[in-house]
Amino acid sequence: MTHPVHTPVLAADGGLIRFALTDLLRASALSMRIELADASAAEPWLTRLVGAEASVAALRDGYVDVPASPELARLALLLWARRWWPASPLLGIPSLDPALLDFEAAVATADVAEGLLDGFEATPAELFDQAVGAGLVAAAGPVADEVRLLCEQLSAWFDREDDLDRAEAAASLAARVAPGQRAYALAAGSGPAASGEGVLAEGRASVDWARVPPGVLDAAEDTVAWRIVATRTAARLDVEVSGALDDASLTAVATRDGAPFAEVALHLGSAGFAGTTDLDEAGARLAATSSGRIDLIVGAAGPDVDGTTSEDRAEVISLVRARESLPPEARTLAERAAADEEF
């Protein structure tokens, strides 16, 4: 499988560094592949990273497989988790605090930039700023000692980079971090809409992770319920999405045999996201036609989205759930904090 959900990748100057997701989530990454797009841009870091012999092979073939760098593997896992972590109260997979993910990614990027590469798309400064803005001090409680130590480490790195403002900010944050707990409020899921008179069509659907922002909806299958109801004068589309983890701007698109015929804005309420819209005459006729397949897509629609399949999602969920058996040092700060919140 080659979907981005299965292929954690680091983008560096002139190339990509890829890992196998299975290896990363099992904390057993033994190899990584370097793919070059611009040899001249990659050459300054390539030899430092893989040595002269492997560097020559990469420049000749355009790629090379080499032993994994633990620092790069750690960073790849954190960046993957920021986008694809399948939070699901229904499946027992906790949400990961974005502030902790950003903060640990900032530290991991600083480690890599200092010793290996300098061309990543997200700098330690950008990631640190995002972590602070997302409430790092409040999130740090369950892993306060580790956050305090990493703040001091990051402060020293910013100081060496002559970023004195952030060096001071990281040092100040280290002094403010205190043990504690942070409550996570999750919207309760709602059941499927009940059938009744006037229902032209109804069904369930699953959320495609690639079409929605991370950390907004439960990653479980079949969390979307929809129905098309006949009224006296027209017809309407009702949509409910259970398992909301955060608010966002979402829409749902109804299709028949792949062709869109209705779109509805979804809004967060006490039972999850929901929305309704009246169908135009053409949409009502389509809904009333017995032939063809009606589907419901939540989030971005269109052929330009590289979507996930149910098989993609099931494989990732299985790998993530298995991480519960890993030792604490093999898990991220955000995972350890989430586990602490459960007790």
Describe this entry's structure for a reader.
The chain is globular. The protein has helices spanning 21-25, 39-50, 52-61, 70-84, 98-115, 124-133, 136-139, 144-160, 164-176, 281-288, 310-322, 333-341; strands at 9-12, 15-18, 31-36, 63-67, 199-205, 224-230, 235-241, 250-256, 259-269, 272-278, 294-298. The protein is 39% helix and 20% strand. With 343 residues, it is α+β, with helices and mostly antiparallel strands. Helix 5 (98-115) packs antiparallel against helix 6. Strand 8 (250-256) and strand 9 form a beta hairpin. It has twelve helices and eleven strands. The strands form two sheets. Strands 5-6-7-10-9-8-11 form a seven-stranded antiparallel beta sheet, with helices on one face. Strands 1-2-3-4 form a four-stranded antiparallel beta sheet.
